[in-house]
Amino acid sequence: MRPPILFPLFAPINTLKGIGLKTQEFLNRLCGNRVVDLLWHLPSGIIDRTYSPKLCMAKENTICTLKVKVIEHIAPKTKKQPYRVICSDGTGDLVLSFFKVYPESIHKNLPVGEVRVVSGKVERFQGLLQMSHPDYIVKPEDMGTILGIEPVYPLTAGITNKLLNKIMKQALGIVPQFSEWLDEPYLKANNWPSFNQALKSAHLPKSLANLEPNDIARTRLAYDELLANQLALAIVRERVKKQQGREIKGNGLLRKKILQILPFNLTQAQEKVLKEISADQASPYRMLRLLQGDVGSGKTIVAFLTMLNAVECGAQAAIMAPTEILAKQHLETIQPLCEEIGLRAELLTGRVKGKTRTKILQDLEDGKIDILIGTHALFVEDVTFKDLACVVIDEQHRFGVHQRLALSNKGNKADILVMTATPIPRSLVLTAYGDMEYSKIDQVPEGRKPVDTRVMPVAKIDVVVDALRRKLDEGCRAYWVCPLVEESEKTDLAAAEERFETLQKIFGDKVGLVHGKMKEKDKDAVMERFKKGELSLLVATTVIEVGVNVPEATVMIIEHAERFGLAQLHQLRGRIKRGFQASTCLLLYSYPLSETAHSRLNIMKETEDGFLIAEKDLELRGGGEILGTRQSGFNEFKLADMTVHKNLLLTANKDARMMLELDPQLTSNRGMALRVLLYLFERDDAVKTYLAG
């Protein structure tokens, strides 16, 4: 239940005075339909109305607030002329001009012989000082209400800044006095104002510096929001940790056999991560762990050994991938290894039908299948395991929280390991996956050669084609990735088809084409031919970004690389880091090149460290885009800006954990205040959602 102290803030926006149906509609579009939505809508600029000179001294093209006497009204002679009001302050004259107006209302606001205060931009026209449509007209005694700094808000059609300022004053007036939810010593050390003072200051900036995200008031508000986020996730994490699981402690025999068969040794990073996972599996609570590893760092083998731990205990395991290509690839890696040690792994996707499907489902229920590999098809109700103890989910950012929970609930208190090859910055991990434990493989297998990345203008495409011919003659295989096409142009597919036809004329039937609009079976057939070496050059749209494994492919050409995000370029380059041969990545760009695009291409040239690239990507374009989904929860922040407030997030994370250790039920004075904070930033819903499973 929402605490009563928050009721005024969560009241509909039309409970404020002066909001009719039309205005309410516009405000809903601009910021939301409750008072609290209005309060999170912060100013983006200021107008200085403090300049109040005599008319003889007034600077042109400047906002002035002037005290003048109304001398006369001059009605227009034609429709094109403005209605004019002549005013004076004894040192000079001012003409107020109005277009499309009601003379009665002007007479009422500016009666002849009376003194009024007007505020607006002063310009000179035909030798006279003029002010068109003053922003404000008030009586002298009300001059103090407009003489100052006026906040300027982001607006929408139908809402003026004057109206929004008026409504915002009312909204700020009903903000209750909250008990302090921040740690007192931390508050004092930062010299932060209280929440109420910070909110008022943010809405009443005194200078342009007050509009910056690192302004003291805005920083305090950002920390409040981040603390609410981290506290909500910490609560979920504690609950998940306490969910009754089962102790999975295999005898290690199957894993030992596999490690003897493998043609390589595990890296130290893989060993470390396996220890962390084994400790989770052995505990009496459910495992929920995120495994991050760059392309080619060996996540699949870690996942396989994790599943074997469950199989050694007589249970079953499942691994789920977002696409059929990726699911099949897991099958190609896992099935032969399983056969070597006498286990059975099967594939279940939407395309497995009829008798084959029936047989797999029956064998699964009878416990004859040890490891099941599949896509979303694993969610279907008729998929029943005899005893599912371990679930691995690949490319987590493509699945929602509910899907993750749905799969784990198929099992008997199944452990969940979530994997992603998209390097995610630490701050994103905390905000998007804060309910999970976290492991990272930050090392690539020995013997992997770095990729030679070069940046070239697209104009040199003939040179590129000649170099490509030499490589293909040597027996190499290559990818040619076609650009993400801007909306004004043709489709991505048309660009890919055009490039395919051009390259086919040069290289003949050695060229294949894959794109997202193809039927899955046609796409698989082309990929299969490329894998076998029947095709040497694969022209593709970004469908090859995730999970395509052809170790023999050592050349990657990305056309119009300036149109891709850093994370995407990194994923694409990862396709040629699968083997142990030296490989080359060419990033072709065209002019004009924006500063951001230039930075992106430079970063790609300088480093292959996915985690460093992810941090740079966050700086360049923000978190939501990196995770690629709105459900990431990252771009839902209203006040916090991750490119500026990253360090605050780490503090909020520590603060939330410490608080739950000291006061798990949040019943102390600070705990009760923090409950209000959770409801203020609506993290109560987040907690309920995560606990839905």
Structural features, described:
41% of the residues lie in helices and 18% in strands. With 693 residues, the chain is an alpha/beta fold. The strands form 4 sheets. It has a 7-stranded parallel beta sheet, sandwiched between helices. A 6-stranded parallel beta sheet has the order 16-21-20-17-19-18, with helices on both faces. A hairpin with an 8-residue loop joins strand 2 and strand 3. Mean pLDDT is 86; it is low at 624-635 and 689-693.
Task: Write a brief structural summary.
This protein has 693 residues and is α/β, with parallel strands linked by helices.
Topology:
Elements: H1 21-30, H2 35-39, E1 45-48, E2 62-74, E3 83-88, E4 93-98, H3 103-109, E5 115-125, E6 128-132, E7 136-138, H4 143-146, E8 149-152, H5 161-173, H6 184-190, H7 195-203, H8 216-241, H9 253-261, H10 268-282, E9 288-293, H11 299-312, E10 316-320, H12 324-340, E11 345-348, H13 354-365, E12 371-374, E13 388-394, H14 401-408, E14 415-420, H15 426-432, E15 437-441, E16 451-457, H16 461-473, E17 477-481, H17 492-507, E18 511-514, H18 520-532, E19 537-540, E20 553-558, H19 566-573, E21 583-589, H20 595-606, H21 610-621, H22 623-627, H23 642-662, H24 669-680, H25 683-690
Parallel strand pairs: 4-6, 9-14, 9-15, 10-12, 10-13, 11-12, 13-14, 16-21, 17-19, 17-20, 18-19, 20-21
Antiparallel strand pairs: 1-8, 2-3, 2-5, 3-4, 5-6, 5-7
